[in-house]
Amino acid sequence: MQTIAFTVNGRQVSGACTDRTHLGDFLRDTHRLTGTHLGCEHGVCGACTVLVDDKPVRSCITFAAGCQGADIVTVEGYEDDAVMADLRVAFNRHHALQCGFCTPGMLATARDIVLRLPDADEATIRHELSGNLCRCTGYMGIVAAIRSVLDARRPAQGASSSPTPAPASAKAFTGFAVSDEALGAAPRQAATAATAATAANEAGRAADRKGWSRIEGGFTVPYAADAVWAFMADLPAVAGCLPGAVLTEVEGEKVKGHIAIKFGPMSARFEGAARLQRDDARKRGVLRGAGQDSLSNSKAAGDIAYQLTARSASETEVAVDLQYSLQGPLAQFSRSGLVRDFVRRMIADFGKSVARRMDPTLSESERMKTVRLNPVALFFGVLWERVKGLFGKGER
Predict the structure, then answer these.
(1) What CATH superfamily classification does 194-392 receive?
(2) Nearest-angstrom CA–CA distance, 371 and 349
(3) How far are the Cα atoms of 201, 293, 359 from residue 168, in angstroms, in the given order?
(4) Is the pLDDT of residue 186 over 50?
(5) Pfam families of this UniProt entry (predicted)?
(6) Residue partners of 49: CB distance under 8 A and separation at least 6
(7) Could you tell me the CA-to-CA distances from 138 to 44, 129, 145, 355 in Å, in that order?
(8) CATH 3.10.20.30 location in the chain
(9) Is domain 2-77 annotated with CATH 3.10.20.30?
(10) What's the gap between Cα 64 and its chain centre?
(11) pLDDT at residue 283 tops 70
């Protein structure tokens, strides 16, 4: 045992410890500074990061005895730190925390990035954060929060120093307050603007947006391409084929409404707005929307692109390309394989509903029956298919 002394959060402290006692354990057990979280205890996850002489270190693999005379700051000691004050506000604004376990270490690293790399771009921020693991947020909010602080602290240098704009469909929104720009309104300077905008959208989609998730699927309907294309322009009819979707306002190519989602433990109701862009000549369309779940305060933005291809005079293939961004507590669900399978299954069942809604031999009541899909049955159906797939790999 030996007695060590150093400064913690501006206060002189001392205590006895063994040579092998790590700084994280000493701070937590001896001084009850439990804001320093211990995760992997191998220096990998970064949750235990604290400042030692103003530099971030892993307290779980740093010996307390080696910090003799040092100046140590933990998450409890940032009250008078201007950079940390900005980061805390930004982390809250951009939903950069969820369970909070990684947050103390994440804030320490974020502070170091802001002070050491004032001109850091997104790639640099992500590289610097690679030593801090988060299993909840998907990092999008964390990166956005750090970028916002960096942008705000840069001196005014004309347009070049202004905050980097987010993708149009990922801009801030609340409920129905979604601007035309956020919904991808096409320029109207020329008669060919709609086609030009569609081409630009396709070019942007060729290289997936950073931080966005992508799911591709499709379906086939037994009707001519022209008939299917006309049906897809009827937004209320299309919404009627999607379970949980309710339109409250339709104005030309713009709609407002909400969609309820339930998938296993996840339940949400997103309210927002969307705009449909169509290229009649190429039979391609993009529905761009954004919304917010009032319960979890999660925000979503997405593009649903579809391409019609005539397989025959009476059969049309519809390819669907969904790209989306999810921020807030629900972001942890956005990339799971089970969710991706679920969405692909939903797309296929949506196609069945479209085919039935277009069937002229059925009455209106019969056509409407198919839109009442069962999310619970879908969930367990997808889960069962994955289980069968796992065990089926060994069969010959």
Answers:
(1) START domain (3.30.530.20)
(2) 9
(3) 11, 20, 37
(4) no
(5) COXG, Fer2, Fer2_2
(6) 56, 57, 58, 59, 104, 105, 106, 108, 109, 132
(7) 18, 12, 13, 37
(8) 2-77
(9) yes
(10) 39
(11) yes
